[in-house]
Amino acid sequence: MNNKKVGLLAIGMCLLMIAASFSGCVTEEESEEMVLIFGSSGDAKRLDPGDVTDGESIQRMDNIFEGLVEYEPDSTEIKPCLATSWNTSEDGLNITFNLRHDVKFHDGTDFDADAVVFSLARQYDTTHAYHDYGEWAYWGYMFSDIDRVEKIDDYTVKIVLKRTNAAIMTSLAMFTVCIVSPTNAEEWGEDVFKHPSGTGPFKFVEWVKDDHITLEANDDYWREKPKLDKLIFRVIEDASARLMALQTNEIQGMEYPDPSSFDAIEADSDLQLLTEPGMNVGYLAINCGYGYTDSNENGAHDLDEPWIETPGYSEPLTNKKVRQAINYAIDKNSIVDNLYKGTAVVAKNGMPPFMLGYNDDIEDYSYDPAEATKLLTEAGYPNGFTSTLWVMPVSRPYMFDPSKIGEAIQGYLAAVNITVEIYQVDWSTYLEKTEAGEHPMCLLGWSGDNGDPDNFMNVLYGENACSIGTAGNVAFYNNSRVQEVLSAALQTYDTTERANYYEEAQVLLHENASHVYLAHSNQNIVFTSNVHGYVLHPTSRKFFYPVTIE
Amino acid sequence: MKWYIIKRLAMLVPVMLGVSIIAFSLIHLAPGDPARTMLGERATQEQLNEIREKYGLDKPIYVQYGIWLNGVLHGDLGRSITTHEEVAKEIGDRFPNTVELTIAAMIFAIIVGVFAGIISATKQYSITDYTFMGVALFGISMPVFWLGIMLMMIFGVFLGWLPIGGRIDLLIPFQRVTGFMVFDSIITGNFPALISVLRHLILPAIALGTIPMAMIARVSRSSMLEVLRQDFIRTERAKGLSERMVIYKHAVRNAMVPVVTVIGLNVGLLLAGAILTETVFSWPGIGRLVVNAVYERDYPLVVGCILVFAIAFVIVNLITDILYTRIDPRIQYE
């Protein structure tokens, strides 16, 4: 090709692009279908419900797969889904489920007991032919109390527990235990995560990596067919670009709007902002000084595992009065208003207010620097002391802008003569070292998994969670009475009794001031104003089944 | 010439080996643990051990490298730790997108940059010269992120002429053949898709091409100025050639050697991940892939991407060197 031809080709391409820019109308064909394009902040990782932990993958799969039970649309109460009913044995160790007869997977396979056993056994049974195809992270973490799943007949299964677990039914509404098609898994083997086949309202159509995932309505759905014909998750990482795409109707919904754009969204009559309290807590954990080594890796503190000083042991912080002083010294209202930009509520307990057993009678520590100084003097630190505050390097739903929150806390503590140096390290090292107790004080938090209080209280505040190296209780607050009531709460199915146990634990935690609970942040989602029927779920999971576009 | 090309391609082998050793060491020496990143706050010791064992992360780094190299020699770049997808597939899915964006950006940069450079040089110290060079300075100084957002606001939101981001209007049916969407829409005769793909290409190409455009404009100008002062130009003018012939037939070609160098370097850089442009315009390219892989300490994916970048860079440089000989016959390779 000679130079002239190359030049002509280049000029031709340019002209075509310029022509294309003015021919938008050609592409905007009116579609008869009801299609919702949702702007996500990232792409899914894998589309196998048992094998994911990230919100983006879960978001897609919640519309493709279903479990034996599901949540009510606006709460974490459970109701039947693929199981029509269930009963629990007297000792609470066997739960028998009766399954629906009229359900088919998207690949045409019948849903039955074999599918249930396959979906769960591949996760816990290390000899299962499909066990090596996943990491099954949530199984080890949430479902280790399940010993096995047995088929009774084609439409009856039994889940056998190792020990009673009052949270297991709410856990069974999680994505982890959604039922997958065994035939589909056999067909795709190692690559099944790219070819999901469930029983849910939408069927998988296409996945273009880092661009979009397309789902279409499942015409054979066992409930009424969804109103949307197509549901497309489009990846737009940048929040301002997501909002612009929404304003131009390229997408009809988006997650994680930037709080600084809320005023503009609310002023725009073509958009609607939906906000609900989130199931999370962000806190400052104060290292109380002692943890244990879980030598037998059973996740519990045993008598032969002595309490030893954590690497981040700091004498002043072992003193309850000092910890209370820190609680009095921090102005949480100001942090929520200015740094969470008003999209959160101030926390006074370690779990969200709408959960079972939340103790609303507790009176929070007020912002009172004078009281803080008085307590420090009583504790023997009239001139204060120096310490280190570990600050998360990443923003999480429960902690917007940790760096600024850290600096604010540094300022508040300086006002009562506690000199704090800020320490930051990359996220995985941060988690590793805080779980090993290397910090005197650290910022951290939690987003709930299943809506059960045990998933906050036992994970974050129990004595068993003080194991150095894998601690969930990064304040290393070890109180045997707290663990006693938390364990008792997990073993009783009586909700009033459970609530009482959790309320007592919160009183003890408040009194001992091992944490400064900062905030419960809201979940926010934006749609164009013609989208109806979307309900924000407390778990932040996204179900598009009831959604319609006017 | 043939031997020269073969020699240069053969040199890819030691270059790749060196690059892979450096990439492998750097990513493993950086703090952070993929198992921990994957499991987040919910890691149990047992699971951490299981994952480290499964991906061989518990082995010494030289053993890990040996296993990886053995895989590569058998044509297997491994699987991504986070997505479980084959690394070659992950890269293959994105690379055509990055190549298309790079080509579009360079077409914009070369046409506008060279043209602006020539005009500025021929009208030195005129208002046109100052305007073009002012725009070039502006182009070099603009953060891509800001420029991208501005382009989107003006042409997407206010004027409504062009889409905000992505590769194609998702409601248009599209059949993927090679992954190069412009090419695919042409060979499948899908005209609506072609129009949509080109419309989606314009803003990212301008955002990405602005800095190279500015560099090319400045280099073209100075190179042209130098050539225009040489004796042979005076001779040609004295011979009575028209100014247009003097400039476009004789001066431009002689001024192009340094410009081709700048173009070659920029193509290499753009291929190695236009991360900011890809993020702003939600462009599913290789830049975003590698940055996310680094965040997640996805070792096999990071090393795989770096290898591809290195190969692309070496090949683009080779093409640049060959182009020199076409432009200036005095340059010869043994």
CA radius of gyration of chain A: 26 Å
Whole-number average pLDDT of chain B? 88
Number of helices of chain A: 17
Kindly estimate the percentage of residues of chain A that lie in beta strands according to DSSP.
15-25%
Tally of alpha and pi helices of chain B: 15
Structural class of chain A: alpha+beta
Class by helix and strand content of chain B? mainly alpha
Strand content of chain B: under 5%
Oligomer: heterodimer
How far is it from the N-terminal to the C-terminal residue of chain A, by CA?
A: 54 Å
Low-pLDDT ranges of chain B = none
Tally of extended strands of chain B? 0
The best one-word shape of chain A is: globular
Write down the secondary-structure element order of chain B.
Answer: HHHHHHHHHHHHHHH
Describe the protein in words.
The complex is a heterodimer of chains A (550) and B (334). Chain A has 550 residues and is α+β, with helices and mostly antiparallel strands. Chain A has helices at 3-21, 24-27, 55-61, 113-124, 137-142, 168-171, 182-188, 239-247, 262-267, 320-329, 332-338, 369-378, 402-414, 427-435, 454-461, 480-491, 495-512, and strands at 35-40, 69-71, 78-80, 83-88, 94-99, 146-153, 156-161, 202-208, 212-217, 230-235, 253-255, 271-277, 280-286, 290-291, 308-309, 344-346, 385-390, 418-423, 441-447, 515-528, 531-532, 548-549. Chain A has 17 helices and 22 strands. In chain A, the strands form 5 sheets. In chain A, strands 1, 8, 9, 10, 11, 12, 13, 16, 17, 18, 19 and 20 form a 12-stranded mixed sheet that branches. In chain A, strands 4-5-7-6 form a 4-stranded antiparallel sheet, with helices on one face. In chain A, α15 (454-461) runs antiparallel to α16 (480-491) and α16 runs antiparallel to α17 (495-512). The longest helix of chain A has 19 residues, at 3-21. Chain B contains 15 helices and no strands. Chain B has helices at residues 2-10, 12-29, 34-39, 45-54, 61-73, 87-122, 127-141, 144-158, 181-187, 191-228, 231-238, 243-271, 275-280, 286-295, 299-327. In chain B, α7 (127-141) crosses α10. At the A-B interface, α1, α2, α5, β10 and α8 of A face α3, α4, α6, α8 and α10 of B.
